């Protein structure tokens, strides 16, 4: 893992001018950062049709194959981010055990539960940021061992406890703040801690506390790396601390930009809203001399159908702007053109999503190794179920 991390770190450092970009901001520029250093890439991007852009955004493998002609180091990155798949013997759930769990989420939880059980060490579970305890419910039912489920929202604790009691499961919900000193009392050396998609500092907090208390095992699937309290990412492992890469919150969002939810309607809403925002930004910049981007609040998706003029007047009212008398249809068209330019630029960043996520995952894994755990990094489900499918497991040596 150390060798892989070092190579990945080196490559990401060398080519950071390709991923350390803001497509939204760059879409308003006449030139791109690679005009001189990689003009062939710029020309290729410019020639892409909207249909090709949409196809590449939905198929990263095809994008990698196409863009590697202009970014030859991509093939090396691809080798470094390959992870083994967990060999899962699918659990058969008793009737009613999946009550209240939506479809795709159920697949995630069952896969995570199966992997946790297959890697199980200790004789008790600690479920971190449990929600209603869906994962803990499966672990309690299949192992027969106690599950302590920590959750911040009291109503979720109440709901989860009622369901567990109804099914006579050995679960105890604890309402509490994961960052409070009181949670230290929950940790026991004989526990196996689990966390499915606990966000940012929440899963980092679990890693730190679990290792301090020498828990037998820890199995997590990280998520939302950008939800941190510091302005910059705080590395965990020694190799990551020695890296020259310093990630901002916006850069930590890059791995999260791939989703599998939402159909054509969602995509159309996004295209409309972003085109409107980009068009209004151009209008304000070029017609009123505005020097800074004006942050417009979220708009109801249903109101997008009212058109660009409605959006502009709505935004002006919300932000106290004075709109000049201009041809709004012209600026609407400019917004559409800028949207597709932004989407083309984002294709370059897209091929770095997984490498950046693997870098972050390996930082966590190497930290666990430093703390005396035997660690594996793998995938626990298909990407179509959730792009956040990385599983980090550590068993105390």
Q: How do you describe this structure in short?
A:
By secondary structure, this protein is α/β, with parallel strands linked by helices.
Description:
- This protein is α/β, with parallel strands linked by helices and 397 residues long.
- The protein has 17 helices and seven strands.
- The chain has helices at 2-14, 16-19, 23-26, 39-47, 50-58, 60-67, 74-80, 103-118, 134-143, 154-166, 200-212, 238-242, 249-252, 264-288, 308-319, 328-350, 353-370, and strands at 124-127, 147-151, 171-175, 191-199, 217-223, 373-379, 390-396.
- The longest helix has 25 residues, at 264-288.
- The two termini are 17 Å apart.
Q: Output the strand order for the largest sheet.
A: 3-2-1-4-5-7-6
Tell me the helix content: 40-55%
Query: Helix/strand-derived class?
Result: alpha/beta
Give the overall form. globular
| Average pLDDT for all residues | 94
The count of helical stretches stands at 17
Main sheet summary: 7 strands, mixed
Low-confidence stretches: none
Spatial separation of the terminal alpha carbons: 17 Å
Strand content: 5-15%
Order of SSEs: HHHHHHHHEHEHEEHEHHHHHHEE
Determine Rg (CA atoms, Å).
24 Å
Give me the count of strands: 7
């Amino acid at each position: 893992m150390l060798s892989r991390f070092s190579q990945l770190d080196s490559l990401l450092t060398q080519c950071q001018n390709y991923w350390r970009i803001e497509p939204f901001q760059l879409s308003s520029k006449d030139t791109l950062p690679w005009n001189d250093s990689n003009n062939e890439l710029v020309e290729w991007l410019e020639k892409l049709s909207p249909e090709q852009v949409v196809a590449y955004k939905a198929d990263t493998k095809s994008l990698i194959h196409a863009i590697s002609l202009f970014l030859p180091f991509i093939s090396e990155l691809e080798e470094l981010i390959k992870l083994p798949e967990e060999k899962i013997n699918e659990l058969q759930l008793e009737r009613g055990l999946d009550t209240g769990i939506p479809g795709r989420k159920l697949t995630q939880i069952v896969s995570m539960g199966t992997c946790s059980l297959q890697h199980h060490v200790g004789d008790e579970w600690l479920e971190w940021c449990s929600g209603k305890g869906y994962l803990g419910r499966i672990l309690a039912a299949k192992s027969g061992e106690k599950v302590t489920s920590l959750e911040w929202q009291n109503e979720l604790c109440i709901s989860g406890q009622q369901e567990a009691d109804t099914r006579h499961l050995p679960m105890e919900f604890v309402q509490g703040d994961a960052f409070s000193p009181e949670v230290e009392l929950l940790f026991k050396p004989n526990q196996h801690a689990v966390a499915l998609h606990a966000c940012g500092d929440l899963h980092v907090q679990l890693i730190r506390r679990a290792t301090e208390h020498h828990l037998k095992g820890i199995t997590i699937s990280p998520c939302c790396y950008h939800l941190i309290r510091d302005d910059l990412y705080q590395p965990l492992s020694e190799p990551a601390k020695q890296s020259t890469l310093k990630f901002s919150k916006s850069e930590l969002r890059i791995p999260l930009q791939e989703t599998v939810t939402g159909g054509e309607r969602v995509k159309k809403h996004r295209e409309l809203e972003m085109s409107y925002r980009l068009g209004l930004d151009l209008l304000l910049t070029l017609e009123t001399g505005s020097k800074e981007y004006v942050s417009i609040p979220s708009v109801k998706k249903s109101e997008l159908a009212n058109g660009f003029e409605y959006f502009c007047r709505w935004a002006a009212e919300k932000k106290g702007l004075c709109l000049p008398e201009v041809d709004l249809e012209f600026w609407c068209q400019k917004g559409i053109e800028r949207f597709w330019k932004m989407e083309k630029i984002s294709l370059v960043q897209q091929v770095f999503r997984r490498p950046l996520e693997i870098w972050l995952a390996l930082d966590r894994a190497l930290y666990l190794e430093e703390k005396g755990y035997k660690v594996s990094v793998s995938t626990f489900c298909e990407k179509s179920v959730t792009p956040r499918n990385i599983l980090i497991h550590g068993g105390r040596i």
